[in-house]
Amino acid sequence: MQITKFLSYLFISSFILVGCSDDDNDSPFDNNPSQAANRQPLGTSANDLLSDTNFKSLTVEMVAVQGFEPTATAVNNFRQFLENRVFKPDGITINLRTVSSANKAPFTTEEIAEIENDTRTLFNAGDDITVYVYFADGSKEDDTTEQITLGTAYLNTSVVIYEGTLRRLGGSRPGGPSLSDIETAALNHEFAHLLGLVNIGTPLQSDHEDPDSNGHCNVPNCLMEAAIEFSSGIMGMGDSVPELDDLCIADLQANGGR
């Protein structure tokens, strides 16, 4: 799924609107049998990521272009999000390393898939399930002046965050969200799609899917809403990152999560 920012502000607005459009899950990959479990459609591994039935631990391989690493605050917030939502008794490991730029920005999803082929080193092994997150040094190819993509969950264990875009947005407006807040929201939102939200691998327990935006929640202010709002705090209290609402959490719990 793609998480996007609509660049239209009211003069009295204290919000940045962030939406999410259709997913890309048809990316080309090498036909390596040992990697097949990590080359499945979006949502396929929802239960495996949420529960400890088949996998007792989770490893997130974060690969960032040099100079475009996520903030430590965002990584810590993301870890807390995972610990709150998944059952992994043997632990959650986040490995962050850097690579040289592929010099392909702006990117198509197919180009991101090629970069994953070149840079991903960790795949499911034993009872450890792995997820790949790439922090790109640029934007998505079809960005416009009205809609900018922040990230995409494009396969069952694959996410790209367009860190180059996030860095242009973070802290760009007085009272607006910080870079770490935008990174946190993008990471949490895209990983929640890997967890099967909304109705893309994790069955609905109630009717809360947005009929106008498949894969998203119709509850206002939910992390999985098609339009996410960052609210700048009153009296300089800071920004708040959207969280999952009770209905989304109920879906995850019914599919083996916390």
> Structural class, from helix and strand content?
alpha/beta
CATH architecture classification: 3-Layer(aba) Sandwich
Distance between the terminal alpha carbons, to the nearest Å? 22 Å
Do you know the CATH topology? Collagenase (Catalytic Domain)
Protein name: Membrane metalloprotease
How is the secondary structure organized here?
Elements: E1 2-6, E2 15-21, H1 46-50, E3 57-65, H2 72-85, E4 92-99, H3 109-119, E5 128-135, E6 147-155, E7 158-161, H4 163-169, H5 179-194, E8 227-232, E9 239-240, H6 246-254
Parallel strand pairs: 3-4, 3-5, 5-7
Antiparallel strand pairs: 1-2, 1-6, 2-8, 6-7, 8-9
Helix pairs in contact: 2-5
Organism: Aquimarina gracilis
Protein name: Membrane metalloprotease
Short description:
The chain has helices at residues 46-50, 72-85, 109-119, 163-169, 179-194, 246-254; strands spanning 2-6, 15-21, 57-65, 92-99, 128-135, 147-155, 158-161, 227-232, 239-240. The protein has 258 residues and is an alpha/beta fold.
Structural write-up:
Helices cover 24% and strands 22% of the residues. The protein has a single domain, classed as Collagenase (Catalytic Domain) (3-Layer(aba) Sandwich). Helix 2 (72-85) runs parallel beside helix 5. The protein is built from six helices and nine strands. By secondary structure, it is α/β, with parallel strands linked by helices. The chain starts with a strand and ends with a helix. The radius of gyration is 17 Å and the shape is globular. The chain has helices spanning 46-50, 72-85, 109-119, 163-169, 179-194, 246-254; strands spanning 2-6, 15-21, 57-65, 92-99, 128-135, 147-155, 158-161, 227-232, 239-240. This is Membrane metalloprotease. It comes from Aquimarina gracilis.
